[in-house]
Amino acid sequence: MKLKEHARNLIALYQPKSPIAEAFRTLRTNIQFAGVSKDLRTMMVTSSGPGEGKSTTIANLAIVSAQAGKKVLLIDADLRKPTVHRTFNVSNRTGLTNMLIGQAEYGDCIRETGQIRLDVISSGPIPPNPAELLGSQRMKDLLEQLKEHYDMIYIDTPPILAVTDAQLLASHVDGVVLVLSAGKVLRDHAKKAKALLNNVGANVVGAVLNNKKVESESYYYYYYGEDN
Amino acid sequence: MIDLHCHILPGLDDGAQTLEDALEMARIAVADGITDIVATPHTRDGVYRNDAEAVLAAVESFQRELEAAEIPLRIHPGAEVHVHVEFVENLLDGNTLTIGNGRKYVLLELPVQSIPRFTDELIYELSVEGITPIIAHPERNVALRENPNRLAEWIEQGAIAQVTAGSLLGKMGERAKKTAELMVQRRLVHVVASDAHNSGRRRPELGEAYRVLASLVDEEEATRYQVNASAVLQGGSCTVLEPAQVVAKKKRFFFF
Question: Which residues of B touch A92 (CB under 8 A)?
Answer without folding.
Answer: 121, 124-125
